Amino acid sequence: MQKGISVYAGLGYTVQENLDLIEFASSLGMKYLFTSAQIPEAADSEDFFEELLAILTAATNKKFEIILDVSSEDAPLFNVEELILRLDDGFDTPRIAELSQTRKIQLNASTVTEDFLTELKNLNANFANITALHNFYPRPDTGLDSYFFIYQNKILHNFNIAVGAFIPSHDGKRRPPIGEGLPTLEDCRNFSADLSARYLAALGTDFIIFGDGLPTFDECKAIANVNSDEVILTAQMMTEDEISKEILSKTFTRRPDVAKSVIRAVEGRQILKSLGTQIKPEISSKKRTFGDVTIDNENFGRYAGEVQIIDDELPADSRVNIVAHIIDEEFFLTRYIKPRQKFSFKFI
Asked: Are 174 and 252 contained in the same domain?
């Protein structure tokens, strides 16, 4: 999954702050830089276009793919083939189809419809030049619902269009004038950048971009290695057994046959076999409950080593060791572990 940053002119970020962020994001291998030619709050800034030019120049030198948010009135001012134009207001379908023939463009993923995309196809739009990016929502309580987000993404993916979304900065300088984060999903507004990225990855998002203009370097590093094909869950280790810890450090795949009460990993038993050892019972009277991570011990015979995430209330079993627990605020991510989906744990 590709990542990116937003860098804005005319909003009180210093030129040096913007350039430092561009430099650091480039060092992490981030691909996209989003900026806007239409910022009402910056309308009175005498330095707006000078700052915007500095941003575009620095981003070009660092080989970012630059996404520029434009209206139909602004678009002729930025007739530079290297820019990806995110088309906001005033573009009709024939004009969009025409633009796609000669340059990369980006649709508003939050508002497209299947009929609109079908019309583009009938007008021979070049879908190889089209991606989509959701809106961000500065006002609290107005961000997208995850159900609608998934619905929109499915429409776009059916036309082979890659879809991106914004995450907020939690610890950096949130973009004025509201200053309450710029997420696509309302659920992400007060999430850490790391959890926001992992959530969007679990939802199958193709690329993510910080909506706020000055995330911290730590936030940038936290999202750099998030992958779209893997659900990463924060958990607390609950065992001292080194073999169990070794198994839990791996990446797993959910079995294609979905069990009622547990998420079963494909690999656990094979990993234990490759280690050439056994897992001793850790006797506990604690019942298994939502978010527990278990490994079957040697008393379960051929199932020894099986890794499960518990998704129910189950009794204690002397053949099963409770070795970790997904933190409560991230248990919701388990619902996005689909059959054959990869998942892994990071421990606190």
From this structure: no
262 phi, psi to nearest 5 deg: -145, 155
pLDDT score at 118: 98
Residues 54 and 195 in one domain: yes
Residue whose C-alpha is closest to residue 140's, from 187, 176, 172, 194: 187
C-alpha–C-alpha distance, residues 190 and 223, integer Å: 16
Count of domains for the chain: 2
Is the same domain home to 197 and 255? no
Per-residue pLDDT at 66 exceeds 60: yes
Encoding tokens for residue 5? 């940053």
In the listed set 201, 227, 253, which residue is the last one of a domain according to the structure? 227
Same-domain pairing of 320 and 186: no
Residue 337's domain comprises 234-347
CA angle at 219 for the pair 133 and 335, rounded to the nearest 5°: 65
pLDDT at position 13: 87
- Name the pTM for this structure: 0.91
22 neighbors 58 (Cβ within 8 angstroms) = yes
Q: Which of 170, 205, 227 is the last residue of a domain?
A: 227
Read off the pLDDT of residues 133-164 as tens digits, 9 standing for 90 and up. Answer: 999 999 999 999 999 999 999 999 999 999 99
**Beta strand 292-296 with 320-326: parallel, antiparallel or unpaired?**
antiparallel
Contacts of residue 251, defined as CB under 8 A and 6 or more positions apart, other chains included, come to 230, 342, 343, 344
Cβ pair 150, 203 in contact under 8 A: yes
Instruction: Assess whether 252 and 212 both reside in one domain.
Output: no
Q: In what side-by-side order are the strands of the sheet with 230-237?
A: 252-253, 342-347, 230-237, 320-326, 292-296, 307-310, 262-264
State how far the Cα of 13 lies from the Cα of 17, in Å rounded to an integer.
6
Residue 42 pLDDT > 60, yes or no? Answer: no
Please state the rounded mean pLDDT for residues 214-221. 96
CATH of the domain at 8: 3.20.20.70
pLDDT in tens, 169-213: 988 888 887 889 999 999 999 999 999 999 999 999 999 999 999
